[in-house]
Design a protein that fits this description.
single chain; 166 residues; alpha+beta; three-stranded antiparallel β-sheet; 5 helices; 31% strand
């Protein structure tokens, strides 16, 4: 018996019984009969960036701030809809710099989720200062606008498309 309906059946006899059974589950949740509870859906946001002795480039540092802020905001917004947003950070070596500034939403690159978006790259002087050679860093191009630092609004749009909670 679902936890909500079990609670309603335990109401004292002198109180009016209220049917707490929902005709449809809360968006993003599923019922786990083995544990007799609702289970929240989790969407994972993973940010990959260059990390050389604790240093990252300016654009990746900016993207990191935007990702963390978006995840905090979305967790508040989506919790009532049964969705949790998990955050992971993966630090890359200089050998993996081609993947730096990549955001994955449930394993898919953000540019694959956003409408009219594509990954690109441009010269990154900040990465070059870290590695000691000329480097290019990932960017996102959407509707003709190039984003070196991936803004919170794009992250939010991508997560909302996957989570369907906002």
């Amino acid at each position: 018996m679902p936890a909500l309906s079990r609670l309603a059946s335990r109401a004292p006899r002198h109180q009016k019984s209220v049917n707490l059974f929902l005709s449809e589950p809360i968006v993003g949740t599923s019922y786990d009969p083995d544990r007799d509870r609702m289970v929240m859906k989790t969407v994972t946001v993973e940010w990959l960036h260059l990390d050389e002795d604790g240093m990252t480039c300016d654009r990746c540092a900016g993207t990191g701030k935007e990702v963390r802020a978006a995840v905090r905001s979305l967790n508040s917004e989506c919790a009532s809809r049964g969705v949790s947003i998990a955050y992971r950070e993966r630090k890359l070596s200089t050998a993996q710099i081609a993947k730096s500034n990549l955001i994955l939403i449930d394993g898919s690159p953000i540019e694959d989720i956003l409408p009219d978006a594509a990954a690109s790259q441009s010269c990154c002087a900040s990465c070059g200062e870290i590695t000691g050679r000329q480097e290019s860093c990932r960017t996102i191009v959407q509707l003709g606008e190039v984003y070196e630092t991936i803004p919170r609004k794009l992250i939010r749009t991508a997560v909302c498309r996957i989570a369907q909670c906002c």
